[in-house]
Amino acid sequence: MIIFTLQGILGNIWSSLNPWSGFYNLFLRPYLPAPVLNLPQRWGSWPAIIAYICFVAFLLADPAPDQPVRLAIFAGGYWLYTMICLVLFGEKVWFERGECFTILFGILARISPLYLGENKLRLCFPCSRLIVDLQPTFSQSILVLVALATSSFDGLNETFWWLSTIGINPLEFPGRSAVILPTILGILGAILVLVVMFTACLWLGVWISRSLVSSGQSPNFVNIFPVLALSLFPIAFGYHMAHYFPSFLVNIQYAIVGLSDPFSVGANYFGLDSHFVTTGFFNTYYSVRAIWLFQGICIVFGHVLSVVICHVMVTRLFAGRKTILYTLIPISVLMILYTTLSLWLLSSPRGV
């Protein structure tokens, strides 16, 4: 959560934290005059989409994704896979089209109000660089929808409603190993539902606009699909912050205690050897209320940004007010429903 959140707030810190570029440029690139293979253009960013779905499946469906050995195997395997692809296809091509985290973090950096311009730290309106700097491809827009759908399912799969739907008693949860297949199917189903709903709403908006406005001003579905899909990314960012905020409040305590003795040798650099990680703030009304309000603000702010950016993007594509209005009506309804869903997910009882 921390890197994802800081990337959206502070800008492109991922370029300095990328775990592959340093090793590749120091030890491999000097001995590789040219990429071994060309990544076909028709593949687009589909390798990144598949990799991201696999990552989410491991995170949500694996029985113990936090277990050090399992996590190390998965992370090490993905690191090796990425390094092989860098050798085969080259750094620029793979980071732009094949590596899911670099692509998503690149989009996320454009949400931030901070950026480096002419070697100076500059301020801008949040998400404004989504409009100016980025021309997304169709597959990149699908990756954005996948990220949004999986973020929502991450909250849905713990609710009483979902567990009862797959035949699990929420009060007697049998463990993650009992719901591996339903979780994977749920991930794929959430992606399919969102992509279909977004496509249907956009197609409906285009159809309404073409029916009620002269043909010279009617929008083109193929041209506006990637642009408007990109405008949904602030929703994913806001929901991510809201969903993981309670976990952050607990895990940051473990991180600070761990930093006090990073090598488990009995050190006590910060004097925290007697500190106990607490979750007591989940048991009082005022602290829970404050947490929920913060989560609600994150979600609403993300949705408001998304609506604003969506409107600005459409105004850059079309000149007529009626065209803009009719095109955006179905998408606006979808965003309202998604806001409602996000707030419902926060308030729903959980059985995991």
The overall strand count is 2
Shape: globular
Count of alpha and pi helical runs: 15
Largest sheet: 2 strands, antiparallel
Elements, N to C (H/E): HHHHHHHEEHHHHHHHH
Give the oligomeric state of the chains in this entry, treating copies of one chain as homo and distinct chains as hetero.
Answer: single chain
Mean of pLDDT: 89
Tally of domains:
2
Notes on the protein architecture:
With 352 residues, the protein is mainly alpha-helical. The chain has two domains: 124 residues, no CATH class; 217 residues, no CATH class. It contains 15 helices and two strands. It has a two-stranded antiparallel sheet. Helix 4 runs parallel beside helix 9, helix 5 packs across helix 6 and helix 9 crosses helix 13. The radius of gyration is 22 Å and the shape is globular. The model has no long low-confidence stretch (mean pLDDT 89).
What is this entry, summarized?
The chain has 352 residues and is mostly helical. Helix content is 67%, strand content 2%.
Give the arrangement of secondary structure elements.
Blueprint: H1 2-10, H2 14-17, H3 21-28, H4 46-61, H5 68-89, H6 91-97, H7 100-109, E1 114-117, E2 120-123, H8 128-132, H9 138-156, H10 160-165, H11 180-212, H12 221-230, H13 233-260, H14 285-317, H15 321-347
Antiparallel strand pairs: 1-2
Helix pairs in contact: 1-13, 4-9, 4-11, 5-6, 9-11, 9-12, 9-13, 11-15, 12-14, 13-14, 14-15
